[in-house]
Design brief:
This protein has about 400 residues and is of the alpha/beta class. The chain has three domains: about 80 residues, 3-Layer(aba) Sandwich (Udp-n-acetylmuramoylalanyl-d-glutamate--2,6- Diaminopimelate Ligase, Chain: A, domain 1); about 200 residues, UDP-N-acetylmuramoyl-L-alanine:D-glutamate ligase (3-Layer(aba) Sandwich), CATH 3.40.1190; about 70 residues, no CATH class. About 30% of the residues lie in helices and about 20% in strands. It is built from twelve helices and 19 strands. The strands form five sheets. The chain has a nine-stranded mixed sheet. It has a four-stranded parallel sheet with strand order 3-4-5-6, covered by helices on one side. α3 runs parallel beside α6, α4 crosses α9 and α7 packs across α8. About 40% of the residues are buried. The C terminus is likely disordered.
């Protein structure tokens, strides 16, 4: 959708600009990925490691003429540009995306949780096939910057939005909710990611649930008593759809000996054959089935499409290595819950007798390095202890 510079100024309530008739239809926060063009609006974001204001002149040479800034820096040709002066560029980005979101009356799914957000989003999009024209977050755009860039992609021809939202500290989810304005909320699970920034697991769950305060429907893991309990405390008005392996939900599932899934939904029973048999993948597939059924996708289509799901890059990604080896790339996340999932997946691979684990620093473990150095990871019949050399 095309906006004028004047409309952007009105949205941001910032000082007058020089060229109000300029057309804007693309947003960018990364000068490296911006090839240039007069219809771009660049947000000069300041961070601990970088400052977007340092790249204004370079972007001007590429044809960019519109900049959201928190300080004015003049350069040769700056008189040809619009500078939207704001206190904070990230907040301005969220404000513009939130305004854009309000122009569309369509169901929007917001996915949060400690693990599985990106995989659920991508697999759900695959399951929808051609039934619904959906717009989704690119890659793992679930941050304070990534969410508004994703929501900006909503267009007139879209019938559904699928966006993931992640937080690392209290206070962030309220801002993302105002951008996404979801009608359907999905909580995948709760784990140890970003644990150190929250006082307790309950606090982290409550923060994530703020994304769903105005949702009409919320899809939760009914077997997770902590999530269910915290949800009940919120008093939010949305109807709950629970999926369960203990016959507690609207969608009840059970595993066969082959790790296929028998699904029961509104008096219908059907079987799906997952392409991945590890526990994390089965959980993510269960979430996707619940969402797809709620959206009205025929269960026969779901059963047909589940076996065709493809793996998401950097999440338990199977690659051929040298010397007839197999490489499992799970570099997308770095937290203890994700590592446990990766070890479970590794343990299921029987192609080779020798298995090697390469682990980076886990900065978001929420545990002191000294205790991490003796941390053990347990699987059924297995126990992994990481040598001290893996930790600082």
């Amino acid at each position: 959708m095309m906006y004028t510079a004047q409309q952007i100024q009105d949205i941001l309530s910032c000082p007058p600009i020089s060229h109000p008739k300029c057309a804007i239809d693309q947003l960018s926060t990364d000068s490296r990925k911006l090839s240039g063009g007069s219809t771009y609006l660049f947000f000069a974001i300041k961070s601990e490691k970088n400052d977007g204001h340092n790249y204004l002149e370079e972007l001007y040479s590429k044809g960019v003429r519109n900049f959201v800034v928190s300080e004015l820096r003049h350069f040769n040709g700056s008189k040809e540009c619009n500078f939207f002066l704001v206190p904070d560029a990230v907040s301005a980005l969220q404000k513009i995306a939130g305004y854009h979101r309000k122009k569309f009356n369509l169901p929007v799914i917001a996915i949060t949780g400690s693990n599985g957000k990106t995989i659920v989003k991508e697999w759900l999009w695959q399951l929808l096939g051609n039934d619904l024209n959906a717009v989704r977050s690119p890659k793992s755009y679930n941050s304070q910057v990534g969410v508004p860039l994703s929501v900006w992609k909503i267009a007139e021809n879209h019938q559904l939005g699928i966006f993931e939202a992640g937080i690392s500290k209290p206070g962030e989810m309220v801002r993302l909710e105002e951008v996404i304005l979801p009608t359907i909320g999905v909580f995948t699970n709760i784990g140890q990611a970003h644990e150190k920034n929250f006082g307790s697991e309950g606090e982290k769950i409550r923060e994530k649930l703020k994304l769903f305060k105005d949702c009409k429907t919320i899809i939760l893991p009914a077997d997770d008593e902590k999530i269910v309990l915290e949800w009940m405390k919120t008093g939010y008005p949305g109807d709950v759809i629970g999926w369960s392996y203990r016959k507690k939900g609207n969608l009840n599932l059970r595993k066969t000996e082959e790790s296929n899934l028998i699904c029961q939904w509104k008096g219908i029973e059907f079987e799906v054959i997952p392409p991945f048999k590890d526990e994390a993948s089965l959980e993510n597939i269960s979430v996707c089935i619940a969402i797809a059924l709620h959206l009205g996708i025929d269960y026969k289509k779901i059963a047909k499409r589940i076996p065709t799901l493809s793996q998401v890059g950097m999440r338990l990604e199977m690659l051929e290595g040298i010397n007839n080896s197999l490489l499992i790339n799970d570099s997308y996340s770095a937290d203890l819950s994700s590592l446990q999932i990766a070890l479970d997946f590794l343990d299921q691979q029987q192609q080779h007798k020798t298995k090697t684990l390469i682990v980076s620093d886990i900065l978001e473990a929420g545990t002191e390095d000294e205790s991490l150095s003796t941390h053990c990871f347990s699987l059924p019949g297995k126990r992994y202890k990481l040598p001290d050399r893996y930790w600082p």
